[in-house]
Amino acid sequence: MVEILLDLLLALALILTAAAALLSQDLFRAIVVFIAFGLLMAVCWVRLQAPDIALAEAAIGAGLTGVLLLDAVSHFRRGRGTDSVVEEERG
């Protein structure tokens, strides 16, 4: 009974974090929620007794992708988006 309750809570948390990441207007908040989604997905893989996939999900899905997305947002917020890169190449 406790395992079923844990699985239901995990499924609900996945649905809520996915919706929050998709519907967020703030890019930083969406990325942070996306990272949380990846970590919850890793916990789901552990519950499904697939620790190798869980490790890959945590490392790639939450870790590497999250860091790259945060770096991309920081570049755009500093004004180094695609428009400024194009202007530098023309100049």
Automatic annotation (TrEMBL):
Start and end residues of each MrpA C-terminal/MbhD domain: 13-78
Superkingdom per UniProt: Bacteria
InterPro entries, alphabetized: MrpA_C/MbhD, Nuo/plastoQ_OxRdtase_6_NuoJ
Subcellular location per the Swiss-Prot or TrEMBL entry: Cell membrane
Keyword field: Cell membrane, Membrane, Transmembrane, Transmembrane helix
Entry membrane topology: Multi-pass membrane protein
TM ranges: 30-48, 55-76
Name this protein carries in UniProt: DUF4040 domain-containing protein
Natural source organism: Marinobacterium alkalitolerans
